[in-house]
Structures are given as C-alpha cells and as structure tokens.
Specification:
Blueprint (H helix, E strand, L loop, with lengths): L2 E12 L5 E7 L5 E3 L2 E9 L6 E9 L2 E8 L2 E7 L2
Antiparallel strand pairs: 1-2, 1-7, 2-3, 4-5, 5-6, 6-7
C-alpha cells in the first residue's frame, strides 16, 4: 500500500495552558471529519510519507488514525488510489 502526505485544515481548541486539541479535519475537497477523541500525543516522525512533529493518535468514526502537526501545518498519511 502506498501513502501520500496530504496537508489539511484543522479546527483546534487551545487551553489556558497552551495545549492544542484538534476537533475536526477539513480535507482539501471540502469533506469534514469530526474527531471523536484524541487518544495520544507525542513527538514522532511519519515513516510512511516523511516529516516529523507532534503525532496525534485520533479516533474518527470509530477508526484510529494519525494526524501530524509539523511546525504550523497539519497533515495526514492518505492512501494513494
């Protein structure tokens, strides 16, 4: 399976302590995905598409997926069709 890096818009919430919580992901084609829950946040690299930063392990529609924050940009590892 091949993957590509897709930069996405992310609606976030900032706490008083400065913690960032992603709430939803907006794909370039306009599809919006609500994040059900953030399960984990840690510094990690994407071994599939390159890049590094904070990796958010999220549950979206009952499925676990990774969302990466690389400096001030967000990306996901999307399956190539």
């Amino acid at each position: 399976m091949r993957y590509k890096k897709v930069f996405v818009a992310v609606l976030t919430q900032f706490s008083e302590e400065g913690e960032v919580t992603p709430l939803s992901i907006l794909w370039p084609d306009g599809r919006l995905y609500e994040i059900d829950r953030v399960l984990d946040v840690r510094p990690r690299a994407s071994t599939r598409v390159g890049g590094a930063g904070l990796r958010y392990t999220c549950r979206i529609r009952g499925r676990q997926t990774y969302l990466f924050r690389e400096e001030d940009r967000w990306f996901v590892e999307a399956v190539c069709s």
